[in-house]
Amino acid sequence: MSCKVFKKNGFGLIEVVVVVAIFSMCLAAIIPITSMSYKNLAANENRWKATMLAQNVFESMRNQRDNNLLQGIDWATKLGSSSNPCPAGCQYDADMISGGSFFNLSLEISSFGAPINTYVYTTSVSWSQFGQTKSVEYKTILKDISKWVD
After folding, report:
1. Structure pTM?
2. Along the chain (150 residues), what's the average pLDDT of each consecutive run of 10 residues?
C-alpha cells in the first residue's frame, strides 16, 4: 500500500490572521498621523491667507502713497489716522482672500509726524480654528519718499 503526501501550497489560517493583525496595527498607527497632518495643513493654509490679507492692506497703503505722489498731492493724504485707519482711498477686501468673513482684521496707525514724516502700520488678523483663536500681527513703515522723486 502506498501513502500519498500532499505538499502544502499557500498560507494557513493562523498565518493569514497574523498578517491581518500586523497590517491593522500599522494602519491604526498611521491614521492619527494623517489626521494631525491634515490639521497642520489647514492651520498653515489659514496662516498663509491671514498673511496675504495683511500684505494686501500694506500694499494698498503703499499704492495710495505712490498715487498721491504721482498726482502731486501730499503723500500722506488718504493714508488714514488712528481715528480713521482706512479712509476712502484705502481698498482691501477680506472676503476676496478668505472667501467670507472668516478673518477679523484690525489696523492701527502710529504717526511720527514732522520732521520724520513716517507712519507705522500694524495689522492684526485673527481667526477661529479648531476651537482656538489664532492670530498674526505684522508691521510696516511708510515714509515720505517725495524727496526721492524728481
Report:
1. 0.63
2. 67 88 91 86 86 84 81 72 47 47 76 70 84 88 71
Closest CA to 108 of 125, 88, 87, 85: 85
The span from the CA of 138 to the CA of 122, in Å, is: 6
Question: How many structural domains does the chain have?
Answer: 1
If phi > 0 it is left, if psi is from -120 to 50 it is alpha, else beta; for residue 99 that is left
Backbone angles phi, psi at 83, to 5 degrees: -80, -25
18, part of any domain: no
Q: Which residue has the cell 497590517?
A: 23
Phi, psi angle pair for 116, to nearest 5°? -75, -35
61: enclosing H helix or E strand? helix 13-70
3-state secondary structure of 139: strand
Residue 132 structural domain: 48-143
Phi then psi dihedrals of residue 133, to 5 deg: -95, 125
